Structure formats: C-alpha cells, structure tokens
Amino acid sequence: MSTANALVISDLNVRYGHVQALSGLSLSVGEGEIVAVLGNNGAGKTTTLATVSGVVRAVGGRVTAFGKDITNGKPWDIVGAGIVHVPEGRRIFSRLSVHENLQMGGYLVGDRAAIARRTRRVYELFPRLGERRKQEGGTLSGGEQQMLAVGRALIAEPRLMMLDEPSMGLAPLVVKDIMGVIKAINETGTSVLLVEQNARAALAIADRAYVIETGTVALSGRAADLATDSRVVDAYLGA
Questions:
Q1: In the 3-class helix/strand/coil scheme, how is 13-72 assigned residue by residue?
Q2: pLDDT at residue number 80
C-alpha cells in the first residue's frame, strides 16, 4: 500500500445557517486504502462527503486530494480530478434504462471507446445489470439500484470513490454482495471512503476507520482495533 494520501481533510468547518455541522474535522485516506466513517444520524458523515464533492461549501479548513487543494472546488472539477461520490439513496435516473444510466457516468470522459470498455467492465462486475441493461432503472430492486449507482460511478474510472450508506435498506445477503464489490474495486487500485451506519459490514472490509460525533472525530484507528473497542461495540455493534 502506498504511503501517499488520496485525500486529506484538515480542520474542516461547515455551517448550515447558525448550525455548526462540522467542527474542526480532520481525516485522511491513503492511496489504496478503504477508510470507513461511522457515526449516528446527524453526526456529519454525509456533510463530510458533500463538502469534499463541492456540493456544500466549507467556512474553514482545507481539503486536499492527491496533493492538490480542492477546497470549495466546483463539483465537476472534483469529478475531473478523479473523485466520484455515490450518494445516499442511489439517485439513479429512474426513467432511463440501466445502460443509459451507466452512460451518464461518462459525461466528462469524452472518449467513447473508453466509456464502452468501462461499461463492459461494469457488466462483468455486476452480471445482473448486464441482464437488465434495457430495463428502466426505477424497476430494479434496491440492491440492483445500488449496484447501478456504483457502476455509474465506475464509468468515470475514479481514483477515489466515496460511498454514502451503500447498505441502506438492503437485505443482509445483498449487503454482503455490495461490500464484496467495494473490496474488489479497491483491489484494482481505487481508494475508498465509505460512510456507513452498518458498522459491522464496514469494519469488516476497511483498513482504517473514524467515528464522528457532532461534527468532529471522536475515535480513529485500525478497523480491526475499532471492531473490538468497547466504545464502538457498545455504540454501534451491540453486545
């Protein structure tokens, strides 16, 4: 694993009006790592990803990706820098076919041959999407829609993929499949920042993890260590 960083968030501060959403939050993702971010609803997990993506503006702090300052950059420039965000709730185009959804992931690529090659790779990774390529996205199951959201992100061939609650609302066997795919994507060299409420599933595939409480990092360390930390077990894993 490389010692270089794919992402460094330093002392990040974000406000929604008078509400402080992030307060001096700092974390990093090394190149080739899977880093999990855990926390309860409202802790600031989604805000963290949205700020990196340029969707939410920071009022203080710095975000650096692959050595370049991207703080408050335009969302399309951040995608162009190799960072792709798979949002909570899938956000697929329900009236477009599976294949059309995937093509939308290549809107900044410009190379039709590259898009075609990457689309074939997605169908290899998710055979069910290949079987349903002409089907409207909105008619897919929840698990298939999540696969489609991840597949669409892969068309951009990201260096860093950020996923927000990919297991939400999915059956345990489907969660296992999704986590296995995230691990497989990482093994091809893509760094991963994984926001998850399913702490057990996230810690099983992550290298390191952070626990966020009220907009700041409360705990951090190796995923295997946090999985046995009594504070994490009591709060997120159960007895």
A1: EEEECCEEEEEEEEEEEECCCEEEEECCCCCCHHHHHHHHCCCCCCCEEEEEECCEECCC
A2: 87
